[in-house]
Structures are given as C-alpha cells and as structure tokens.
Amino acid sequence: MRVQAKICGLTTFETLDTAVRHGASHVGFVFFPPSPRNLGFDQARALATRAPAHVQKIGVFVDPDDAMLDAALAAGLDAVQLHKVTPDRAAAIRRRVPVWVALAVKTAADLRAAAGFQAAADRILYDAKTPEGAALPGGMGLRFDWTLLQGHRPPLPWALSGGLDPDNVAEAIRVTGAPQVDVSSGVESAPGVKDVAKIAAFLQAVARC
Ligand SMILES: O=C(O)c1ccccc1NCC(=O)[C@H](O)[C@H](O)COP(=O)(O)O
C-alpha cells in the first residue's frame, strides 16, 4: 500500500502547492506562538482553503485551550495533532474533531504510553522526544531509534516522525514499516523556511517506497 506523507509546518502558498503537486496526503499547520512555523488564524484559513479536499489539513497544537481550538478549527481543519496532551483532554477534544496524539519517544518505555490513548485518539504520531526545557516539543529535526518500533504493536493507526529527510525516509520506512511519515525541518533551508526542492525530493522518495 502507498505510504502516506504529511508535510508539516507549511506557511506559504508556494510550499503548500509543491506539497500538493508532489502527492502529500496531509499538510500540517502549526498553532504554537514560540514556533518559527506558527500561523495566524487568517493565514491558516487561506492555506486550508487553497488545499484541495483530498489533502487532509492537520492543525498542530501544544495542549491547546478551547479558545485556541475554536479559532483554529474555524480555519477549516480536518483533524488536530496534539502534543503534551493527557488522554482525558484528548478524548474531550475528540468529541469535536478527529485527534492525532504525538507521542514523544526516546526509549522503549515511551512507547507504552500509546495504549493509554486507544479510546482517546484516532492516530498516534511517534515523534522524537525533544530535550528537557527545549522551546518546542517537535519540529526540531531530532530522530529516535527506529528499531524501537520493531515488535511494537501500535494500538491505533500510526505515523512516524522526527528527523526524517529526503535521504533517510526510505530507510526509516524500511526499518519501521511505517504506513505514514511526517516531516518538518528535514524539508527546510532554515528553521521555519520550507524548501520546495526538499519537499519534492522527500515526497518522491516516499513514492518510491
Ligand atoms: O514544528 C513545530 O514548530 C512544532 C511546534 C510545536 C509542536 C509541534 C511542532 N511540530 C510537530 C510536527 O509535526 C513535526 O513535523 C514533527 O515533530 C517532526 O519534526 P522534524 O523532526 O523537524 O521533522
């Protein structure tokens, strides 16, 4: 089956169009002010409106409050990706919109937390754990040991994230069997600046898998 790919942290029409043209199944919009990829709600609405219906629009949040969610959902999101969220809060949000939970992974023990989200999420995104005190819980180009996922039974549909790029994504898919991959800084020329050539190369590499 074709591996799906999400290009996360898009902020411009040009990079959105590139992702769509090269076959991204999902695009991600970040709503987290400390991030270099943070979007205003009007910007997000313009991008979401431009993306075709077959491309899923995913809003990325760090434990958002209801006011933040209300404003972002009005931009036209298909699902939300939640970082640093509890199962109870994820379940409450899921009553309004499909939920992806980003699970921060460094060791095998971190994978066990996925089970707690079985009734609270629609998808688990296995992402690299960022260092204690880091400004961002994702989007830092860090990867975890992919072999940890070998023998792990994800309780939900899942995706692999963290430190992927055009050169390593095929190997990551081979090692983990990931049905879906997610990338942000691996297709950038600088933090928050997406690179159209890298987006195209990443999606071409995924399409060859
Ligand atoms: O990308 C951000 O700036 C961000 C900010 C706050 C929470 C999550 C964020 N990104 C999450 C993502 O979905 C990234 O695509 C994922 O962590 C992978 O990032 P990267 O290792 O840079 O490819």
Please specify the SSE layout and strand pairing:
Blueprint: E1 4-8, H1 13-21, E2 26-31, H2 41-50, E3 56-62, H3 66-73, E4 79-83, H4 87-94, E5 99-105, H5 108-111, E6 123-128, E7 158-160, H6 169-176, E8 180-183, E9 188-190, E10 193-194, H7 196-207
Parallel strand pairs: 1-2, 1-8, 2-3, 3-4, 4-5, 5-6, 6-7
Antiparallel strand pairs: 9-10
The protein binds ligand LARABZUK.
The ligand O=C(O)c1ccccc1NCC(=O)[C@H](O)[C@H](O)COP(=O)(O)O binds at residues 8-9, 28, 30, 32, 35, 37, 60, 62, 81, 83, 127, 136-142, 161-164, 182-186.
Pfam family, one: PRAI
Pathway: Amino-acid biosynthesis; L-tryptophan biosynthesis; L-tryptophan from chorismate: step 3/5
InterPro entries: Aldolase_TIM, PRAI_dom, RibuloseP-bd_barrel, TrpF_fam
Structural account:
Helices cover 28% and strands 23% of the residues. It has 209 residues and is of the alpha/beta class. The chain has one domain (4-207): TIM Barrel, CATH 3.20.20.70. The longest helix is centred in the C-terminal third of the chain and has 12 residues, at 196-207. It starts with a strand and ends with a helix. This is N-(5'-phosphoribosyl)anthranilate isomerase.
